């Protein structure tokens, strides 16, 4: 029998740890779970667990990510997309609410099924990232609800309300399983499509965003990255706008999408200084949402933005000659870097607050013409 390579052995060890951790968290819950027992369940040493995961929080998030990825990959698309925004919100809610635990489930298994984060996020940066992720989820849901129109706050805000409703129901179900009728919640989500939430004016901060600059810089994007919406290669070399956002600035994607041209390919690259925890948190929330969207919308109705996880920071590194010194204290979680790509060249770049809006709105000269800097 052929010997396993080091990479194969590490993958086998990681898989064994995930199985053991899932059992431990289901039985004892996050707070009472022990790394020593997880190692014992996996028939591994404590050191073997820590060689793959930085700690219990990272391991718990990895278990949730694994479950979310399995659900996404198994998602069967519908024969056709819902005919109206209200029907779409109701269908999305019904799919999402399938995770609610039953009365007889153990607390630990119920929390895993809910993808619960209660008592898990121990840092201010992680909580801030979660707030940004919730806003980003609302944007992705809105892009599926109105795929052929410009991004409007009038669509994003009801999407955010639906997510608030669903997560509120999940929070209640953690402590009182069986409370709340999922069918009533789905009908409530459907009716939120028609709620009046005020005007749809451009956000007041956008006029104060520093303008983008024109350039003619050859662009060789890093390979090996993929779009989490479709599962296809990321296509970072395609014409369009690439927006690199730290996990603590993901809500800025809405400004970029609002400012993009109708035919722009917009790619949001998610980066973080903490891939083990905040990176997994971002992956969990976005993959979980995409799994639900794939069951509600046909492929042509999925959000038109691309979403790419860049845990190694290869994209900002490739843009380093443009963004040197522009990251706040080197913190990738607060990064905002955006470029417009055309014919293999970066024709526009921007950094700092509102970079995505600036790059998407900027009209750079055609490559090869005078006026570029």
Q: How is this structure best described in words?
A:
There is one protein chain. With 373 residues, the protein is α/β, with parallel strands linked by helices. It has 2 domains: 7-60, Homeodomain-like (Arc Repressor Mutant, subunit A, Orthogonal Bundle); 85-361, no CATH class. It has 14 helices and 6 strands. It has helices at residues 6-32, 35-42, 46-52, 56-74, 85-96, 107-113, 124-145, 153-175, 182-191, 253-259, 275-296, 314-318, 320-323, 355-361; strands spanning 213-218, 240-246, 266-271, 306-309, 336-342, 345-351. It has a 6-stranded mixed β-sheet, with helices on one face. β3 (266-271), α11 (275-296) and β4 form a beta-alpha-beta unit. α1 crosses α6 (107-113) and α5 (85-96) packs antiparallel against α9. The protein is globular. This is TetR family transcriptional regulator. Pfam families: TetR_N (PF00440). One of its GO terms (molecular function) is transcription cis-regulatory region binding.
Descriptive key words:
2 domains, 14 helices, Arc Repressor Mutant, subunit A, transcription, 373 residues, DNA-binding transcription factor activity, transcription cis-regulatory region binding, alpha/beta, 6-stranded mixed beta sheet, HTH_TetR
Write the layout of secondary structure elements.
Blueprint: H1 6-32, H2 35-42, H3 46-52, H4 56-74, H5 85-96, H6 107-113, H7 124-145, H8 153-175, H9 182-191, E1 213-218, E2 240-246, H10 253-259, E3 266-271, H11 275-296, E4 306-309, H12 314-318, H13 320-323, E5 336-342, E6 345-351, H14 355-361
Strand content: 5-15%
- The ordered string of helix (H) and strand (E) elements is HHHHHHHHHEEHEHEHHEEH
How many H/I helices? 14
Unreliable runs, pLDDT <50, ≥5 residues?
367-373
Radius of gyration: 22 Å
Helix content: 40-55%
